[in-house]
Amino acid sequence: MPQPEPAVHGAGQPVRVDFVSDVVCPWCAIGLKSLLAAAQRIDGLQLELHVQPFELDPELAPGGEDLRQRLMRKYGMSAAQYEASGQAIRERGAALGFTFDLDKRTRSFNTFDAHRLLHWAEEQDAGSQLRLKLALLEAYFTHGLDVSDHAILAQVAAQAGLDGAQARAVLDSDRHAEAVRRDQARWRQAGISAVPSVVFNQQHLVQGGQPVETFEQALRQLSGLAA
């Protein structure tokens, strides 16, 4: 898996991006890959990317819940609508180089511990949080893994270049729990109720898994780097 960095140094104005999302949200995966693809198009872009926590289903118990049943009930979807949504997700992902194997993604899981791990990763070397975020999205959507399981989370962290033993120690404690709760509350108080929500320079909000061109336009405008 490629190891992207969150910042490319250059001559434009720095752009801060807070990417508010969950690791079990397909449109978050699409939005992040689209944002990163847009950043790659802009020579000299100084991008400061922060992954921010948002739990879609904070009440889920260990072991999760059948995904198809949950989504159809939560959003009032018919079986046909569920299948059509899955096909649209597969196609958007494929266009961005991301594989959605939705036959393996059969359950929805609690993601609080994954967000704790992402908070820890941000304290490590540059790029660690982004690498872990991408690895978690791949673990869930491509391989159908349980991203609430501590052993799996530690393994994914190690695969993303982090210290697996340290990751497991974080997970087996309550470290960063209060910070994640505080951050989630802050974004909800700011009016964020759906993800992905992409906040540019702490002022400008773009929501949803937007096309690469939409993110590119925003990044160019804010950085002052014309096409």
Features:
two-stranded antiparallel sheet, alpha+beta, 227 residues, 9 helices, four-stranded mixed β-sheet, 6 strands, single chain
Number of helices: 9
Strand content: 5-15%
What is the helix content?
A: 40-55%
What pattern of helices and strands is seen along the backbone? EHEEHHEHHHHHEEH
Largest sheet: 4 strands, mixed
The shape is: globular
Structural class: alpha+beta
Rg calculated over all Cα atoms: 17 Å
Q: Mean pLDDT, nearest integer?
A: 94
Residue runs with pLDDT of under 50 for 5 or more positions:
1-9
Strand order of the largest sheet: 2-1-5-6
What is the terminal-to-terminal distance?
29 Å
Explain what you see:
The radius of gyration is 17 Å and the shape is globular. It starts with 14 loop residues before the first strand and ends with a helix. The N terminus is likely disordered. By secondary structure, it is α+β, with helices and mostly antiparallel strands. The strands form 2 sheets. Strands 2-1-5-6 form a 4-stranded mixed sheet, sandwiched between helices. A two-stranded antiparallel sheet has the order 3-4. 48% of the residues lie in helices and 11% in strands. The protein contains 9 helices and 6 strands, in the order βαββααβαααααββα. Strand 1, helix 1 and strand 2 form a beta-alpha-beta unit.
How do the strands and helices of this protein lay out in sequence?
Blueprint: E1 15-21, H1 26-40, E2 47-53, E3 65-66, H2 67-75, H3 79-95, E4 107-108, H4 112-122, H5 128-141, H6 150-159, H7 164-171, H8 177-189, E5 197-200, E6 204-207, H9 212-223
Parallel strand pairs: 1-2
Antiparallel strand pairs: 1-5, 3-4, 5-6
